[in-house]
Design a protein that fits this description.
With about 260 residues, chain A is of the alpha/beta class. Chain A has a domain of about 70 residues. Helix content of chain A is about 35%, strand content about 25%. Chain A starts with 9 loop residues before the first strand and ends with a helix. Classes of the chains: A alpha/beta (about 260), B mainly alpha (about 325).
Chain lengths: ~260, ~325
Amino acid sequence: MPVSASSHLLVVDKLSKSFGSVSVLDELSLTVDPGEVVCVIGPSGGGKSTLLRCVNHLERPSGGLVFLDGELMGYEKIRGKLVEMKSRALAKQRRKIGMVFQHFNLLSNRTALENIVEGPVQVLGVSVASAREHARELLEQVGLAHLEASYPSQLSGGQQQRVAIARALAMRPRLIMFDEPTSALDPELVGGVLAIMRQLAADGMTMLVVTHEIAFARSVANRVAFVADGRVVEIGPPESVIGAPQHERTRKFLNELL
Amino acid sequence: MRPPEETASQPLGGETNISPLPGGTPAAPSPLPEGFDGLEFATRRHIGRWVAVVVVVIICLLVLKSLIFNPNLQWPVVGKYIFSAPVLDGLGLTLLLSAIGMPIGVIIGIVVALMRLSENKLLQYVSSAYIWFFLATPLLVQVIFWFNIAALFPDLSIGLPFAGTLVSVSTNTVITPFIAATLALSLHEGAYMAEIVRAGILSVPHGQIEAAESIGMPGSQAFRRVILPQSLRVIIPPTASRVITFVKNTSLVSVAGLAELLYSAQLIYSRTYETIPLLVVASLWYLLLTTLLSLGQRRVERYFSRGVRGPGGRR
């Protein structure tokens, strides 16, 4: 399903989501280009997390469309109508999008290494040996090679989050989404996780990052989107959105943070 | 790229140790009140605890003595029957009922639990009704009911609507006492197991399911690889208790004259009037079976607690 002007890797078009009578996303539109880092900032409850969860259909959107690589997420065209995909087909689409959660969500009954190997082996059908080899490289990359046999409960929050990033990378995704990856961490553990994300960005990974770390957004993001009340209020390079915000709402939010 | 070390190690000690004042100056006056200098610590003696120990030990000894040395227990009779052929046959039937009935109960439980958790309303209602009915009537009544099923349905027929009966057999030839006993025990067990399995599945944090979905696992694979293994940690302990209960519950089918362990003992004492020693024989076997099962339970629980902190968790 080709989309016109498809230099974008991710196209979010008029995405809406409401829980009962509460509207969380209100026709939100956004694009992410290949190799681009887009940071989403904004007040709590503004729909930032819901945006990520609707992109990979962990949450079913109430309206609007999401395209990854020109392919419509979650629906297929049958006789001129959009019909919900079978769960198996949706699962296949999700493999292209890595997700790093605020609370890590490592599988609690698997070791660090097993968490990373699980997806490639069980979902992609990679051989155990080569999946393990790749997983060890990734653990090395996030500085945790010595902890591959540890269970999540034995790791600090920062270590768990680094394993979670390695797990997302192991699927070789086109896009990685980070849902407030440092919000659940003790302050002294934040730096290690951000350093890894910074390196990923430098390596050219396409990233959509919901974060409260304004300094990180300012220095790493290609574009920053300020999202409030379920809409993109303002989007642009960090020096304008963070440095010289045009909207009163953005200014107020940034002032409260500082 | 190696991220900065998370745990910055603080130098310990330093110059914090208290040293005596230099230069032989007269020691400062002790800040302690009078008479607390250089005292040793001792453990408090708990007299009450010792009294309790003595009282409980005496009571236990008295109870044991009155039991073990009671001539009415007739230990020689116990010895005579404990390995006798009818008792061992009864034991065999008890084991067989448990070995067939419990797995059927577990399978029914898993199916009913999945029905109850499904998004299909009809399946939810049907499974709820099943659980309600089998938990709400006494097992003994259910056992007697299944033994008398022929009074309700004299014939079992397979037929199609508008095509008439294809096969018809007398209920009593199909539902033998053994089948009736297995049906009664496992249908009842299925209701208990359904609730245990449901609790186990609900105990898996939603984040675990989302993690599986985010790496692109289809629902069935996520259930097999993520939800089921983690729910087993919660499901296993009560299930092991149910196995033990099941073994004991098989004694209920004695009311229908199926010669399992208890009824085998009853058959003997109805002839010889050696009631107490034969009940001891049956009890000793039940004790042995349930003890072995409890030991097995601990090992299985340890295995499924991988990665969990706290008591019973293997870290």
